Task: structure prediction
Amino acid sequence: MVYIAIISLISGIVCGQWIFNERWIHFFTNQSQYVLYILLISVGISVGLNKQVFQKVKEYHLKILLMPMGTIIGSLIGGLTASLLTNVSWYDSMAIASGLGWYSLSGVMITDLAGIQLGTVAFMSNLMREIIAFIIIPYVARTFNKYTAIAPAGATSEDTSLPMLIKFTNEEVVVMAIFHGVLCSVAVPVLIKYIYIFFR
Amino acid sequence: MEVLIYMLIGIVIGFKWFPLKLKKWNERIQVISISILIFLMGVTLGSRPNFLTDFLHLGLESLLLAIIPIIFSVLFVYFITKYFFK
Result:
């Protein structure tokens, strides 16, 4: 799966940079949400087929909220730490880290709020987070535990990273990953906006 | 929110009607659609006119801003699962 992912990514970049013209690019990227919907329904079917999952979610209830909190706080502290090693200011750095892997939104928002240079860093850094998450999920699941494998994925744990989580964890973790992804996705725009309002 | 709605549709289908025999095919659909999504992500990325120069200039900063938050997220969530998920 990781190889398929890397091959898809590289061939996408090659097509975007050299092969497709603008009309094709628009055509293709406009289809991506439909592909995502197909994926979501298909993942839903996987979850629905596994009947014990719902029992487990009931058992965990409030604990489901703790994981996104850990991911968000960890990312913010990670952003602060990273600002010590880069030329990015601490609040820009925190805003970029609070993209939580949602590169399209954080790229656009930070371009708007802080300029194209930082917007590009936000885009690339969050894209890298998604790709790195994709690659390390199996290792995190093995080294720490299956729940922790959700953390690197951030906001992408409900969509792009989900197939990896399905493959390397279990249905119970997958359901938590969906909640985690939804809550993180809601948090991303709020965090970016308020970091700039309060700290700049 | 759409994400949840589509997911719920899938869950209902899976719970009520989906034949267990076709489970393998359902998993294949996931692999195919994720590959397409990643390909399209690459297209979006590659279609930025100065992608390569941007990438080389800002690549290291971006990488640090990806890796360090990942490390801290993993550590925080690990401790949460260790102390609260017993």
In short: Residues 50-86 of chain B form one domain. The first helix of chain B runs from residue 2 to 16. The radius of gyration of chain B is 20 Å.
